[in-house]
Amino acid sequence: MALLVQKYGGTSVGSVERIQAVADKIIKFRERGDDIVVVVSAMSGETNRLTAMAMEMMEQPTPREMDVLLSTGEQVTIALLCMALEARGMGAHSFTGGQVRILTDTSHMKARIKEIDGTRIHAQLEQGNVVVVAGFQGVDEQGNITTLGRGGSDTTAVALAAALEADECQIYTDVKGVYTTDPRVVPDARLLTSITCEEMLELASLGAKVLQIRSVEFAGKYKVPLRVLSSFEEGPGTLISLEEESDMEDPAIAGIAFERDEAKLTVTGVPDIPGIAYKVIGPVSEAGIEVDVIVQNAAADGSNDISFTVKRGESEKAKKILEQVATSLKAREAVLDKKICKVSLVGVGMRSHAGIAAKMFKCLADESINIQIITTSEIKISVVIEEKYLELAVRALHAAFELGDPDYIPNSN
Amino acid sequence: MALLVQKYGGTSVGSVERIQAVADKIIKFRERGDDIVVVVSAMSGETNRLTAMAMEMMEQPTPREMDVLLSTGEQVTIALLCMALEARGMGAHSFTGGQVRILTDTSHMKARIKEIDGTRIHAQLEQGNVVVVAGFQGVDEQGNITTLGRGGSDTTAVALAAALEADECQIYTDVKGVYTTDPRVVPDARLLTSITCEEMLELASLGAKVLQIRSVEFAGKYKVPLRVLSSFEEGPGTLISLEEESDMEDPAIAGIAFERDEAKLTVTGVPDIPGIAYKVIGPVSEAGIEVDVIVQNAAADGSNDISFTVKRGESEKAKKILEQVATSLKAREAVLDKKICKVSLVGVGMRSHAGIAAKMFKCLADESINIQIITTSEIKISVVIEEKYLELAVRALHAAFELGDPDYIPNSN
Fold it and tell me: CB–CB of A72 and B72 under 8 A?
């Protein structure tokens, strides 16, 4: 008999009918003899509906009251799911974040979990009930309602699994699991049966939005076996494993991530003096703009080009700041290029497999794709290229590293 | 500087715009220097929307989960109203029932308030904030969310006013106050400036649905001055006073209530033996049907007719039971009359004014209205008559007892 924590997102509980389907699913697990703790999000659309009303009240709604407002979304779902379970003869008991007691700090709208008391949940499990917990929410020391920020239900599920020492935390979503890359770009992208926590973190932060980053960090930190599966289709999904695969036969690369939503800024002709990178990047960061990859090239004439990427939506703002910086540094010019993208290979196997980078660069060269920036970490190589080559690059790399599904039949979808 | 508890019902907070109008209203009071605690209902329509989803889940939703579900309605309103106040530069702080701590028993969907802790509310008032409390809800000893049943927000307001020793509890609604009778039936019905608690109880229980009965009982028991006013129009409304008016010049009658939703059942030819009334009424009550007025007439032949009224919706069910009773008692027959109504005069002045009943009966006789049943209490006389005479009877009585508004101008509406 296992203890499973299952999380169902907004789409999975998006209507009365879908909540009923989730109830049917839960009962199947329960009938196997497993103990089930369910974490649910607000019904899809609900958070947006509530936010819209708040925005009509004030442009920047008070964070404390925003949390009081938004936390009702999950509270509705827990009640409805419990009713659906009870209607099917299955005992069920709901808890809000405050009732469990999921204790957080007081940072409204982006609270962090400090402690979870499992006593009341264990008592309900012992009575044979399915326990249904509102995701995304908690309560601070003073009893104020807090929320963990968007996607926080994943974090609730993993944190609960850790606190309850669950055997597995299952995140039900609208995809079958984690793929080697986006199947919309590469039709034979393969569903991974497992992936390491580190790899998942790199993939998630690079734009594969299957799981919230914090929940993966949590799973790694507290050694919670985490699995991503589909709410709508049968299948084992992808296990985010805690240990690195030691099998040397394993492919070096787990997957290919990409990010379209970036822009590149370059200041050319910057004097080559110590601290110059800080003088360029500092003002941009101070304006609250997140800077991604940074590269500095020394030219033969003793001057420098410094390039970096930011989110595309913030690129115009960054350019204005950079123009002032360029003037004050007597640099040549500040250039903005919005038509770029970032493609990354991720895999813990890189550590033991040499030549991955070389193979990647050759593959792109064979396709005549020019690399503008390269950055590497221990388990990742990222390149910035022209946006129009994105699909071509991803498909070529996917084929070169043999990531495709051997059972793939073209045009079967 | 007064401490006011103000309650705004579902219609008063039925949209973003109406919540903003309530915020404007509250700020006017605050600017006079009064401390304000606001109790709000769910936005109109919200409770029905949530109930409809629950009914799709199961025919008789689990009461505990129903309370988890329905309590979100008021939670949304408190957050939105606080935002509207803050957007206008007014400090505001929301509390759910559980956060205040409005402690109730565990009777889900019809919980009773046991205790209210005013500490946190007083602390917020001392900081100059408007306090906004979710009506209708509380929490039991175990931390389960409870609700007080429909209309329970009135009870929350009065109970809070009692606990906080407020100077007045103001119930804002969609009518201007309590009238001598329904203005839709009698156009010159007069708005009462005050009415005693006892009179209000009789009027409320007789069908004048301005205030929830329990809130009036609470106000009487805990000596809370209670006022009913309009959210949408200026005016002093009606004060539900704690002391009986001692002024002998006051009219004997406060108002006329009526109830359309009744039906009369009669068993004829019942043997005149001790305990026979119980044998007739007992089975009906045991079936969970509420019996209103009851009358027993001994006929010259030693047999009896027993008549009573029930809610019209339950009358067919009551008739079936009564037919069995009639058979077993060898009574003549069981008759159902759905076309009746009840009209009542209410007033504490009846105690000191003789001849009220005689005047009432003469007035009805003058209009050729036949009285089927009469019941009386210390401050009330009710008659059951044919439904088609309802408007005629109410208008005639309203005129006979001079209850009309002397300033009324016909067709001014």
Answer: yes
Residue B299 lies in a domain: no
CB contact under 8 A, B65 and A79: yes
User: Are the Cβ atoms of A98 and B94 closer than 8 angstroms?
Assistant: no
- Find the CATH number of the domain harbouring B90: 3.40.1160.10
Q: Give per-residue pLDDT as tens, A50-74.
A: 999 999 999 999 999 999 999 999 9
Token code pair at residue B95 = 């509390």
Residue A93, both tokens: 């008991």
* For range A284-302, the mean pLDDT: 82
Alpha-carbon distance A38 to B107, whole Å? 26
User: Residues of A with CB below 8 A from B143's CB?
Assistant: 99
Tell me, yes or no, whether A39 lies in a domain. yes
Phi and psi at B409, nearest 5°, equal: -115, 115
B21: its two tokens: 């109008």
> How many CB contacts within 8 angstroms connect chain A with chain B?
107
B51 inside 8 A of chain A by CB: no
- Which residues of B are less than 8 Å from A99 in CB distance? 143-145
Question: A82, B66: Cβ pair inside 8 Å?
Answer: no
Domains held by chain B: number:
1
Distances (CA, A) of B170 to B100, B148, B227, B345: 20, 19, 5, 26
Nearest Cα residue to B134 out of B71, B80, B64: B71
Distance CA B20, CA B25 (A): 9
> Has residue A190 been placed in a domain?
no
**Alpha-helix residue ranges (DSSP H) falling in A88-212:** 97-100, 119-126, 152-164, 197-205
CB contact under 8 A, B58 and A83: yes
CA-CA distance, A41 to A148, in Å (whole number)?
12
Q: Do B72 and A76 touch (CB under 8 A)?
A: yes
β strands within B151-302, DSSP E:
168-173, 194-196, 226-230, 238-241, 255-259, 262-271, 291-298
Strands B92-95 and B303-311: unpaired
* Phi, psi (rounded to 5 degrees) for A37: -115, 125
10-residue mean pLDDT series, chain B (413 residues): 94 96 96 96 96 96 97 98 98 98 95 95 97 97 92 92 96 90 90 90 73 84 92 91 60 87 91 83 89 80 85 93 92 93 90 83 93 87 94 96 84 51
H helices of B172-268, in order, are 197-205, 213-221
**What is the domain range of residue A91?**
3-173
Report the alpha-carbon distance of residue A287 to residue A318 in Å, rounded: 8
Residue A280 in any domain: the answer is no
- The whole model's pTM is what? 0.83
- List the one residue out of B254, B226, B323 whose CA is nearest residue B283: B323
Q: Which residues of A touch B90 (CB under 8 A)?
A: none
Residues of A in contact with B78 (CB under 8 A): 65, 68
DSSP letter assigned to residue A380: E
What distance in Å separates the CA atoms of residue A79 and residue A383, rounded to the nearest whole number?
Answer: 47
* Structural contact between residues B269 and B332, judged by C-beta atoms closer than 8 angstroms: yes
